[in-house]
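Hi there, hope your week has been kind to you so far. Thanks so much in advance, here it is:
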Amino acid sequence: MKNLLLTLVLALVWTAVQGAFTLANFAVGFVLGYLVLRLLRPLLGEASYDRRIWYKVSLVGFFLKELISSSVRVAIEVITPGYRMRAGILAVPLSVRSDLGITLFANLISLTPGTLSLDVSEDREYLYIHAMYIDQGEEEDILHLKRTLERRIILALGAESTETPPVSDAAPAS
């Protein structure tokens, strides 16, 4: 946390030196501050946010690529005559266990055109998804989701995403 604060301070100093506070100027300052602190790592210690930053960038980039390609695919399906989709419901076994990880996985799937997260099983073992396109068969599409999106989420969130949440003894509210 200390290194993140130092990076932000260096970014603000950069914008002050440049004389114009713009988002682009701040972003350049943040990158430069990050690089300076990376060079000073032996003196300051490793930044806690540093470990997962590239995995998070990879997740965002992958999601944007999937968002664009699926948007184009659904748009083409809508404007062309005929019916080329094969829809279905998939039960995806979850490797991600944290509330944040499951929520992120479900929401990224729902934000992608052509797919919708329906429910998480009560034992948190499966995420049920409606997909407009089941191209290679159910098993292959499930493996594709696990190898691409879920794996990137686990890498971005780290070990806390695969921990099993504590089981509450309290009765569920009805």
